[in-house]
Amino acid sequence: MAPAADRVREVLTWLERRGTKRNRDGMARYAIVADKVFGVSVADIRQLGKRLGRDHELAAALWETGWYEARMLTAFVEDPTLVTPAQMDRWAREFDNWAICDTLCFHLFDRTPHAWRKIEQWSTRREEFVKRAAFALLASVALHDKRAADAPFRDSLPLIEQGASDPRNFVKKSVSWALRAIGKRNGTLKAVAIDLARRLAESSEPAERWVGKDVLRDLTRPDKKRPARAKS
Questions:
Q1: CATH fold of 85-223, please?
Q2: How many CA atoms lie within 13 A of 70 on its CB side?
Q3: Which residues does 151 contact at the CB level (< 8 Å), separation at least 6?
Q4: What share of the chain is helix, strand, coil (3-state, %, to 5)?
Q5: What residues does each domain of the chain span?
Q6: What is the pLDDT of residues 121-175, one digit of tens each?
Q7: Which of 61, 110, 127, 133 has the greatest CB tally within 10 Å of its CB?
């Protein structure tokens, strides 16, 4: 196998050739801001990730490049069984937009054995995208771990209630996503999620009120069996 540095150069060349101004402009419209970006579609990134396969060494080297698409690619290349808590903390501190945050949480971090610990730890962090990661990760676990018991999701409700007071746009939207995802797991959790949402909707705090109303709109509409989705 070629050295990691050679493989990284090949990947960056592949990404650069597929980058377009149209994609970069589209990212900007959706508030996806990064210092180094080619403008490659997520579909192309996933296609490349599937071709490369899981490779812990390559993922680490791709992350260090700082390129937006290379970091997105790590979600599909990194081996979740080899991800360490320290690595999760380090990468989360470098999240600079919601798309990187959500993609890593939704396609990688929720598959690690450290997910619940990081949800709790990150939920009280001050950095906007680290805090968003706590609730994006909670939503991802709620949507993907079909065998998990109700208890850890019930236990996470105080974290959600606390997080709902954060008025920052990218945080409050992830808090809503987490509560909606929990409510969609089953009837029991839906009832407790709606109860919390109603309390938040009656709050005097604008951020809490927004989260509560947003969750209620989703959880009380006729069930179309659609998964809860993130909001940028």
A1: Leucine-rich Repeat Variant (1.25.10)
A2: 23
A3: none
A4: 70, 0, 30
A5: 1-78, 85-223
A6: 999 999 999 999 999 999 999 999 999 999 999 999 999 999 999 999 999 999 9
A7: 133
